Amino acid sequence: RKKTQRTLKDKTDELDFVEVRPLSSLEDTTDRLAGDRWRTGPPTGRAGREGATDTAGPLGRGVRAMEKARPQWGNPLQFVFACISYAVGLGNVWRFPYLCQMYGGGSFLVPYLVMLIVEGMPLLYLELAVGQRMRQGSIGAWRAISPYLGGVGVASVVVSFFLSMYYNVINAWGFWYLFHSFQDPLPWSVCPLNGNHTGYDEECEKASSTQYFWYRKTLNISPSIQENGSVQWEPALCLTLAWLMVYLCILRGTESTGKVVYFTASLPYCVLIIYLIRGLTLHGATNGLVYMFTPKIEQLANPKAWINAATQIFFSLGLGFGSLIAFASYNEPSNNCQKHAIIKSGGSQFEASPDK
């Protein structure tokens, strides 16, 4: 017992020499460390990244890993041009002027602009924000938000798949007409001679040279739906060329696509300006402009005009296909997607100008 008491006394004597620091000194040390961190910023390098992800938990580590592995656009301009190039199509060049003509010319612009502000810009901003924040494509982005929303991403990919299947056929027709446009005279401007070379083809004379070239030379349609036509090898080669160009454009991801969009975003505007100048020089162009921009107030009470305006917004901006989410996923996390949504909306409306 005496030995135990002597040992406890020795331990007590040792504790007497331990410096007990007041709480005020600990607060000073904490303030000094906080001040050093404020001046020098957060830790950088591998240690800083690991520390940040550890505090954020598994979700933070996953987001940080995606930000590190996900490629990015070379600059914000490439992203804007990619979105504009994506929206250029028949929905802007053909469908919008058709709706303007149907619903009173300039009066259709009123429901269209209202739907653009109320419907189009918020949805466009939503898609860009989701893609930029989640750093994934349409399926992964919606699934990351909630597993129950994974079907939304799958549906958008399925729609885009079927859309690209038939839309590239239209591109193939464009190549077909481009190659034949170097002939003189143009093959769709005159009717061919009959087999005896004694006159023009009877079928072409009953229809027109344009329809004859389309149905007989381009499509070579069968007499009825029960009969299968043969493969048209020349248009098939044009379709192969169209898919080959798509492959070359996306071969290296954003590295190759970011270079191509400078051309694909600029060329449509140049062509549309040429069409505009050509249209203004035609006879009766002034009457057409007066008709187009003279509003018919009674059309504003037509519910079909508002429904078609709301539908046209999806064609003009390319909403609902998941492509905008994929484009935005290659942005910097700090990118101002709200500003880009406004720029994208304005650019699409220029393409959808009713002057065309």
Automatic annotation (TrEMBL):
This is Transporter. Residues 29-39 have a biased composition (Basic and acidic residues). Belongs to the sodium:neurotransmitter symporter (SNF) (TC 2.A.22) family. It comes from Castor canadensis (American beaver). It comes from the Eukaryota. It is found in: Membrane. Its main location: membrane. GO terms for cellular component: apical plasma membrane. It is a multi-pass membrane protein. The chain crosses the membrane at residues 76-96, 108-126, 147-167, 233-251, 260-285, 305-330. Residues 28-59 are annotated as: Disordered. Keywords: Membrane, Metal-binding, Sodium, Symport, Transmembrane, Transmembrane helix, Transport. InterPro entries: Na/ntran_symport, SNS_sf. GO terms for molecular function: L-proline transmembrane transporter activity; metal ion binding; proline:sodium symporter activity. Na(+) binds at A87, V88, N92, S316. One of its GO terms (biological process) is glycine transport. The keyword Isomerase does not apply.
